[in-house]
Amino acid sequence: MTRKERSDKGSIRINARDFRCLSWLLEMSSAYEEDLAIVLDPARLTSPNAAKAVLRRWRQADLVQAEGLFANRGRIVRLTDDGARLVGEVDHSAAGPVTAAVHTAEVARTRLLLEHRPPLAGIPVVGWVGARHWRDEHEPAVLAGAHVPDGVARLADGSCAAVQVERVNHGISAAIDVATDLLRRFPRVVYAVPAMSGGVAAVIESAVAAAAREIRFAGAEPATALVISIPDRLRGALEDQPDGGWSARAGGCHDPAGDTKAGDMKRPPGVRGDPRAASTCLHRPTG
After folding, report:
1. Whether the Cβ atoms of residue 227 and residue 275 lie closer than 8 Å to each other
2. In a designed cystine with 194, which of 74, 142, 183, 230 is the match (CB 3.0 to 4.6 A)?
3. Which backbone phi and psi does 227 adopt, to 5 degrees?
4. What distances in angstroms separate CA 114 from CA 73, 90, 228, 229, one per listed residue?
5. Alpha-carbon distance 263 to 261, whole Å?
C-alpha cells in the first residue's frame, strides 16, 4: 500500500518563531544576517548554520532578501513585499539599494546589544520604540523641529533612553544641533558608533559636551550621555565576554555631558561616558 502524498509537499511552512522574527525584522527595517540568529534564539543556543538554514527557507518562500556589502558585517536582510504582507504591513515597499539599509541594520544591532548585555545599573531593557513609531506618537513636536532618534529604549523601571546611531561624521555643528535637542528632551541619551567608524566617537563626545554647556548656560540640566561602540561581530562579542562586555574596570571616566571627572566610578570596557547614564529616568520625553 502506497503512502498518501501530503497535499503541501514542497511548500514552505512558517511557524510561530518565524513569524515573531519576521515581525521584528519589519519593525527594524533591516538587520545583519548573523544578528537574526539572536532574534530567533535569544538564549543563543542555535548554531549560526541552523540560523542560516532558516534564512534560506525564508528566501525560498520569497519572504526576505539578503545582500552583501561589508566584508566585516555579513549580509543585510530585508523583508520582501510578500514578507511584509505576511506580518501585516500592506503598504510596505522593498525597493531601494542595500546601502540605504545599512543605517537601520546598525540600529538593529545596537538594540540587540542593549538588550543582551547585562544592564549597567541593573535595569534591563524591556521594550523598544522605533523611529517611525516615535515620529507618529510625537508628530506635533516633530513638525516643530524635534529630532527623531533612531529608537527609544524602555527599561524595566519605566525609564527610557533615546538611542542615536552615528556612522558618519556630518560635522561638529550638525552634531551639536542633534545633541542639544536630545539632551533637552530626554533624561538619558545613548550614542552608538560602529567600531569601523574611526573618529566619529570623538566628534560626538565633543558635540555632547558643547550641547551640555549650552543647555546649562540656559539654566537647565542636560541628560546624561553615553557613547558605546557597535562591534563588527555581535554574537562573537557577546560570547567572547560572558558578562556581555559590561564588566567594570578600574579608572576614572569622562561624562561628555557632565564636564567633570567621575573619580572612582567604574566604566565598562568599550564604553565612553558615565555609567550613571543608566540611572532611573525621572521624567518622560516631552512633546
Report:
1. no
2. 230
3. -115, 120
4. 18, 30, 10, 11
5. 5
- Listed residue (206, 229, 225) closest to 162, CA to CA: 225
54 Cβ neighbours under 8 A, 6+ residues apart? 18, 21, 36, 40
Element of type H or E holding 217: helix 200-217
Integer distance in angstroms from the first to the last C-alpha of the chain? 71
Q: Which of 153, 223, 213 is nearest to 189 (CA)?
A: 223
Please provide the DSSP assignment of 244-275 as one string: TT---BSS--B-TTT-SB-TT--B-TTEEE-G
Residue type, 16: A
Instruction: Give Dmax over CA atoms of the chain in angstroms.
Output: 87
- What's the pTM? 0.81
Nearest to 248 by CA among 223, 226, 273, 266: 266
pLDDT one digit per residue (tens) for the chain, 287 residues: 555 554 444 467 889 999 999 999 999 999 999 999 999 998 877 788 888 999 999 999 999 999 988 877 889 999 999 999 999 877 766 667 788 899 999 999 999 999 988 665 567 888 999 999 999 999 999 999 999 999 999 988 888 999 999 999 999 999 999 999 999 999 889 999 998 777 899 999 999 999 999 999 999 999 888 899 998 888 777 776 544 444 332 222 345 666 533 333 233 334 444 333 333 333 344 44
**DSSP-derived 3-state class of residue 82:** helix
